[in-house]
Write a structure and sequence with these properties.
Blueprint lengths: L8 H22 L10 H20 L10 E4 L5 H8 L7 E5 L2 H10 L4 E4 L12 E7 L8 H14 E12 L14 H7 L3 E10 L1 H7 L4 H7 L6 E10 L8 E2 L7 E4 L5 H11 L4 H4 L2 H13 L3 E7 L5 E8 L2 H19 L1 H6 L4 H7 L2 H4 L7 E8 L8 H15 L4 E7 L4 H10 L2 E7 L5 E8 L8
Parallel strand pairs: 1-2, 1-4, 2-3, 4-5, 12-13
Antiparallel strand pairs: 5-7, 6-7, 8-9, 9-10, 10-11, 11-12, 13-15, 14-15
Helix pairs in contact: 2-7, 9-11, 11-12
């Protein structure tokens, strides 16, 4: 039986693409573009709502500047969104956009010639795997009526995203009865397109039929009504895809029965105990187990975190390693959003020794101090149960940690450790291949060594 070429997947894809091109060509002829400029009161309110939600999601992911981040906007049109990102620190050469309509891309190039804009289909992105820190789509999925095409677009966005990257999706949920060329997309549909992910959901934008009537004479009323979720027409999602099996357990090669596996919340009790036994003279240990438990629990929620434990055949946890790919954002989030919880957790230590208050106050400056670090990526802690020294556990934890950082496309990893009376630890890092970057003294008078490891050099360092 002869196969109907009109029913093949490629034919369906081309049919959907042709439909989208035709719809937008007709739209440009009939739509009043002034409705979508800052001169329109309703659009100005929409823009502010969208901007506020975007910045909130970025900050929740530890991103306070877009400098040095590679960003792809799928369905970029005339590059309006990419131009907004330049206001947040993004460099034009790091901003990429794809769209089906060459005329819109030409307008984008005219507005900023250094933007990297390409005429391409979102279902077949001309980009390498894991090549972007942020991938965005603004009112794109609602323009695609074919469910399978939506799915392919979402899969492509995940494919080109770095393992610790962030997807920003902004779209509307109600159908427009006067416009059959778009179809609203509900939250459950967006989550189905991006399964196995963490979601930061914002319900925003007062419905246009309401805002267009009220905004010209009652903008404050529009802002108040936007607080009522049922009146809001759009979602903005921050999506952190979790790739199954990307970080797998590493079996010990020496037959000791040790396995390295991702840290989970169920491990935190053992992790805190090992920390307190391994770093019994350190400041964090003095703050107590409740403080440490909160710290490591927050770490597990952090995008870009790397955390492993070492477990023996009996199921006992013998060591752990933790770190983050963007230390400044991690610490800034803790201080900005969780300072009260950490203050309460440290209250017992403060009552025992009020003199530590100035040191805790200095910790509030830690996000700023990380700007002088040799690398955004940080190995925070690595510890082995004191009774298990010499079994190669620390080496295996460190190898798993470095491999996970490579998967996140991290270039340099840094760490700090005591310079004095700490020969064994310093030898461990030097033997692995770390290089001494600098030596400095803390306000408390402790001399510290900062080491860095170049992951681009890899084994050549060792």
């Amino acid at each position: 039986m002869k196969r109907d070429s009109q029913n093949t997947p490629s034919a369906l894809v081309e049919s959907e693409l042709d439909r989208i091109r035709s719809v937008y060509a007709q739209r440009d002829l009939h739509v009043d573009e002034r409705r979508y400029t800052p001169f329109d009161p309703a659009h100005m309110i929409l823009h502010h709502s969208r901007e506020k939600a975007l910045l909130s999601i970025l900050k929740r992911n530890g991103i306070y500047s877009l400098s040095d981040l590679r960003i792809l906007d799928v369905g970029c049109g005339a590059a309006g969104v990419l131009l907004e990102y330049m206001d947040y620190g993004a460099k034009p050469q790091d901003l990429f956009g794809i769209d089906l309509l060459p005329d819109k891309l030409l307008r984008g190039h005219e507005r900023s010639p250094n933007l990297r804009l390409f005429c391409a289909d979102g279902q077949n992105l001309p980009c390498a795997d894991h090549s972007f820190d942020i991938v965005t789509s603004y009112t794109v999925f609602t323009s695609v009526l074919d469910a399978s095409s939506r799915g392919r677009m979402a899969s492509e966005m995940i494919r080109v995203l770095k393992s610790d990257g962030l997807i920003i999706c902004y779209d509307f949920w109600p159908n427009n009865p006067r416009n059959p060329n778009v179809r609203g997309i509900h939250l459950w549909e967006l989550k189905r397109l991006f399964p196995h992910s963490r979601y930061d959901v914002r319900r925003i934008v007062l419905g246009p039929p309401i805002s267009r009537r009220l905004a010209p004479f009652a903008p404050l009323l529009c802002q108040l009504l936007e607080k009522i979720p049922i009146l809001c027409s759009h979602y903005m999602l921050g999506i952190n895809p979790q790739r199954n099996g990307e970080i797998s357990r590493v079996e010990a090669k020496n037959g000791a029965g040790i396995e390295i596996l991702p840290m989970k919340r169920s491990h935190l009790g053992d992790v805190v105990k090992i920390h307190m036994r391994s770093f019994h003279t350190f400041f964090l240990t003095f703050l107590g187990s409740r403080f440490l438990g909160l710290l490591y629990d927050e770490l597990l929620k952090c995008p870009g975190r790397v955390a492993f434990v070492a477990r023996d055949r009996k199921g006992s946890i013998l060591g752990f390693v933790t770190g983050v790919s963007r230390q400044g954002g991690f610490y800034a989030n803790l201080i900005r959003y969780r300072w009260a919880a950490f203050a309460f957790a440290a209250s017992g230590a403060i009552l025992r020794r009020p003199s530590i208050i100035p040191r805790l106050a200095r910790a509030l400056n830690y996000p700023r101090l990380t700007e002088s670090a040799s690398s955004p990526a940080l190995l925070m802690s690595i510890a082995v149960e004191p009774g298990s020294f010499g079994g190669g556990i620390g080496q295996k934890l460190l190898e798993a940690f470095m491999e996970a950082m490579r998967r996140q496309n991290v270039r340099i990893v840094s760490l700090t450790t005591d310079r004095d009376e700490n020969e064994r630890t310093n030898r461990f890092y030097l033997r692995y291949g770390f290089k001494l970057a600098r030596t400095f003294v803390t306000p408390e008078g402790r001399w510290m060594n900062e080491y860095v490891f170049d992951l681009r050099a890899g084994a050549a360092n060792r």
